[in-house]
Amino acid sequence: MIANKEPKVTKDLANKKITFVREFDAPLEQVWHAWTEASLLDLWWAPRPWKAITKTMDFSEGGHWLYNMMGPDGTGQFCRVDFKKIVPYKSFATVDSFCSEDGKVNESFPQTDWNIEFIATSEGTTVKIDLTFASEADLQKILEMGFEQGFAMGLSNLDELLAE
């Protein structure tokens, strides 16, 4: 059993990058499915009391995931994840954006390049998430919006889902 489930977070402002490393007590295949299937993402992606509600998802290179991050007051923000490269059960790369309900990217918010890597370990699975921004200002804006804490909460939700 993995004792410390806090994400290891490294911020490299000069290179406009944040890295999260998080371990999970579950086999790689189970963790992979939780990251790549809409019905499972909807159960853990958003920090509580928010919810992720998938509108559409095509997990393939060139496909995208369109979801609404719905707050407890019923208001929401649509987000779009464009899948760039997928190596099944090893990694995938995306570009994440805020967008309209129909998926049109909102240029007033930063876009983020994500690379998510899955590594089987003797205790479960390690997931390494590298986020890269176009500028240090974009990185700072996302941090000021509470991304780090919110994403860590989502990863804790994933722990609970994997334990079921």
UniProtKB/TrEMBL annotation:
Domain (Activator of Hsp90 ATPase homologue 1/2-like C-terminal): residue spans on this chain: 25-162
InterPro entries for this protein: ASHA1/2-like_C, START-like_dom_sf
Family annotation (CDD domains): SRPBCC_CalC_Aha1-like
Family matches, as SUPFAM superfamilies: Bet v1-like
Top-level taxon in the UniProt lineage: Bacteria
UniProt family annotation: Belongs to the AHA1 family.
Name this polypeptide is given: SRPBCC domain-containing protein
